[in-house]
Specification:
The complex is a heterodimer of chains A (about 190) and B (about 120). Chain A has about 190 residues and is mainly α. Chain A is built from ten helices and no strands. Chain B is mainly α and about 120 residues long. The longest helix of chain B is centred in the C-terminal third of the chain and has 58 residues. At the A-B interface, helix 3, helix 4, helix 6, helix 7 and helix 9 of A face helix 1 and helix 2 of B.
């Protein structure tokens, strides 16, 4: 859960935020280090291109830097970064003219492979399939399973109705199950 | 094997490429320098009323001075090269002129009839 990932010493984070807002570069660097994994991963899982993901992540932190004095708390920073990154990802994907076509070929038989390699392949396949979801559904799934957010938190982050979030999750899981090998669909 | 567990595994966070933090900090410095080029609080400024820290103003000023010094140096170098090229052209033109004069003298001497030829022509 998100709550487990929250910093232990909240007051220290508040002090870091306050120092960063006054222009302390070291404090801002500390904020970047604290959130960079979340921001970059969100962009990478959404865009599937490391260079584009870094662009979006850098933009998100630059926007954070410009808005530091408007953020009241460390938890607000995390919430704000999630929302900005998600919106920037959706904007970027909508700007792309070319659409990645379905890379999933159902006729290809599953290769026999050791468990670890099969897991790696499965993870890669899952990331490909998530990348094929519509932008809104994709960001909902990523926030749910990367950030472990509850549907209500996702709705708040994206400014989306709760029922829409739940609907995206339900349909996305059904679509993923339909395209995955049977042992994952039904459990091994 | 549950799909949701697999999704959590597949979508687990990863670290950004090395140097990410430095690149972000560089962009904030560049952004501060760009913002410094416009007036504080002017329309289009991302943060009207926000005070820039002194070190960002100093870096912006240093960057501007570096750019101006580099541009001035390049211009001076360009002017020197141009003057050198003009001087070389003039020298070449002068050398060609002298060579031309020498050739004219030589040609005149070659064309001038010798004493023997003059005698023979008189006879």
């Amino acid at each position: 859960m998100l709550k487990l990932a929250q910093p232990i010493d909240e007051s220290e984070d508040e002090r870091t935020l306050a120092r960063a807002a006054t222009g302390d570069a070291a404090a801002f660097g500390s904020l970047v280090r604290q959130h960079q994994s979340m921001v970059y991963s969100l962009a990478l899982r959404f865009l599937r291109e490391p260079a584009s993901a870094e662009d979006v992540a850098q933009d998100a932190f630059l926007e954070l830097y410009r808005n530091l004095d408007r953020l009241q708390s460390a938890s607000h920073v995390r919430f704000w970064l999630r929302r900005v990154t998600a919106n920037r990802c959706i904007d970027r994907i909508r700007q792309r003219t070319a659409h990645a076509e379905d890379a999933f070929d159902e006729d290809v038989p599953e290769p026999e492979a050791p468990a670890i390699e099969r897991d790696t392949l499965l993870e890669s396949r899952l990331r490909d399939l998530v990348a094929e979801l519509t932008p809104n559904a994709r960001v909902v799934v990523i926030l749910r399973y990367q950030e472990d957010l509850e549907p209500v938190e996702i709705a708040e982050t994206l400014g989306m109705p709760l029922n829409t979030v739940k609907s995206h999750l339900r349909r996305s899981l059904a679509a993923l199950r339909a395209k995955l090998p049977s042992e994952v669909r039904h459990g091994a | 094997m549950e799909l949701e567990d697999e999704l959590r595994r597949a979508l687990r966070p990863v670290d950004p490429p090395r140097g990410f933090e430095q690149r972000v900090l560089q962009r904030t410095v560049m952004d501060a320098a760009e913002t410094g080029a416009t007036q504080d609080g002017a329309a289009g400024s991302p943060e009207p009323g926000r005070q820039r820290p002194w070190w960002m103003s100093a870096m912006a000023a240093a960057a501007a001075m570096l750019v101006m010094a580099t541009a001035g140096g390049l211009y001076y170098e360009h002017r020197l090269e141009r003057a050198e090229a003009v001087r070389a052209t003039n020298e070449l033109r002068e050398a060609l002129s002298i060579a031309n004069q020498k050739l004219a003298i030589v040609q005149e001497r070659v064309n001038r009839p010798t004493a023997r030829e003059s005698r023979e022509s008189r006879e």
